[in-house]
Amino acid sequence: MRAIDFQKGRTPIFNSILLAFLILAPAVLPAFYIYIFSVIFVTAILAMSLNLVVGHGGLYQFHHGVFYGIGAYTLALILTKTDLPPWVGFIAGPVCAALAGWLIGLFCVRLSRLYFGMLQISLGSLIWAVTFRWYALTGGDDGIHGIELPGILSGITRSYYVILIVLSVCLIALYRIYKSPFGITLRAIRDNPERCAAVGINVRRHQLLAIVIATFFAGVAGVFFVVVERSVFPDLMFWVLSLEIMIMCLLGGWFTFSGPILGAAIMVSLRTFAGVYTEYWTLILGVILILLIFFLPEGVMGFIALKLKRRELLLEAKKDI
Amino acid sequence: MEASQVAFLSAIGNHFLVGISRAMILFVVSAGLSFILGVLRVPNLAHGSLYMIGAFVAHGLTTFFGGGSIGFWFALLLSPLVVALISLVAERALFCHLYEREHLMLLLFTFALMLILGDLVKIFWGADYRSVTAPKLLQGSVTVFSSPIPKYNLFLLGMGPVIAVALYLFSNKTRIGKIARAAAADREMVSAIGINVSWVFAFAFILGCSLAGLGGALVSPTVSVTLGMDHDIIIETFLIVTIGGLGNMWGAMVGSLIFGLTQSFGVLFLPQFAIVFPYIAVVIVLIWKPRGMLKAVW
């Protein structure tokens, strides 16, 4: 498969160094960078969850942002409007997102390709429009701000560590899913749905399950978005955000495991640091994207993976001689 | 009849006309999108940006000619041409290399173009709100169903069918229109009989885009011309094209009417959630007929 194998080569060493750096980061870096890292972690969970359905499932999940928003709004509403203990919200967020994913997916998987995407966009926009206008419940276009968090998540360093742990758990879980028989079947369905159906695989059930898993993780990302930003607003469910998540996957590489993380990191840093110098950072993003689509359609990680593979093959060929 | 009933009926008539005139704008823009989707199979997200540019150019031209009636008519004529020029450059420089890519790539590519065009508009025109005054002939309102309707909305009601018929005649009666439709069905065959498909595509793309420009110019007197117009219109037109049937011009008309009417009746019955109704209608149509109301080209 085209996914990068974590067990081989220098990757474990690189990962350990990266992890050590991230654990030590709050001690050495200013609070602003810790905040940016937290945003990147949350966005990375979101991008990876989308990659499960689009990159590995081959489905046109055009409106993934809605499930992110549902997760965030569920937690925000439980924290602000009810007396339930906070942990209920942290569980209800992803579960509600997964439920919405199941319900929307149920209608969408009957359709193929572009029609799948369009039905999802219309259902997602419906949820967005209701959120945007329901002032009494969701705060309408203002959203909800200044959400009080439980003690363990107050303070930027503590929430940073919690999100780092959550990201690691999500990464391990998604990696297991990719390597599981289910993940392999999903990729087989992406590459040849007719043949998979012919050998007795229930294509739609697998796709639906992939959507449910992905929307669950999107809900996790949404819940921790609230932890980082302490606010929710309807733009979380706007279709532009959904396309931005897709762009992260494209930047990093569709078919790789860690590509979306890199894509999320690039996107968040670009928005933050280019946004300081110019208000036209989307212009820069657009130009980068066009260059990428023309010259590097596999994404950055995909490109690296391709190079590594080529070198491996070359070495093997030399051994044979 | 009692007075309240009369008032209610006239309100319904009023919202019906306003809804249809709004639908005509949506139709002009989505017909262009549908044409491009049908012939080139490109889901062009930058279409909304071209609509926005059309509105900004219309404002610029109206002001340039002193804000009078002549200025507006010139703007209506020239903004589609300006947009056509922009799309010609975009097609020859970028699009024509990418037609063979898969839809997802094309979608993200046009999204990138949308981001770039949006920022360029911000650089050229800034983030202010602008308004265009309708020409004297179309100012004021007339009384229909015993309630006032702006004359400009009636003008839009007339323009929609005229453009629809013109497009129909173009794609069914002229040589280049027939070639474009043939290329939509089977591009290899068309190129095999010695027609330069690349330029047919360029022409189809430019025609579709200039309709976006025309839509932008037409809408400019009724809304405030500002950034963010592109985001609002593009998702609506995409859904219209899908519920009408991809690439089907009359489908775009049906979809626009559904969208415009549900929105304006939403304003009448439940103003707070007016923007929700069109999406409900779209969801119902897509669940009932996933491939659209009328026959899709592909």
Characterize the structure shown.
- Chain A is mainly alpha-helical.
- Chain A has one domain.
- Chain A contains 14 helices and no strands.
- The model of chain A is unreliable at 1-7 (pLDDT under 50).
- Chain B has helices spanning 3-40, 47-64, 69-93, 103-125, 151-173, 175-185, 187-192, 197-219, 229-244, 249-269, 276-288, and strands spanning 141-144, 147-150.
- In chain B, α2 (47-64) packs parallel to α4 and α6 crosses α8.
- Chain B is globular, with a radius of gyration of 19 Å.
- The interface between A and B is large, with 40 and 41 residues.
What is the strand and helix layout of this fold?
The complex is a heterodimer of chains A (321) and B (298).
Chain A: H1 11-28, H2 31-56, H3 65-81, H4 86-108, H5 113-133, H6 135-138, H7 156-179, H8 181-191, H9 193-198, H10 203-229, H11 239-252, H12 259-277, H13 281-295, H14 299-320
Chain B: H1 3-40, H2 47-64, H3 69-93, H4 103-125, E1 141-144, E2 147-150, H5 151-173, H6 175-185, H7 187-192, H8 197-219, H9 229-244, H10 249-269, H11 276-288
Antiparallel strand pairs in B: 1-2
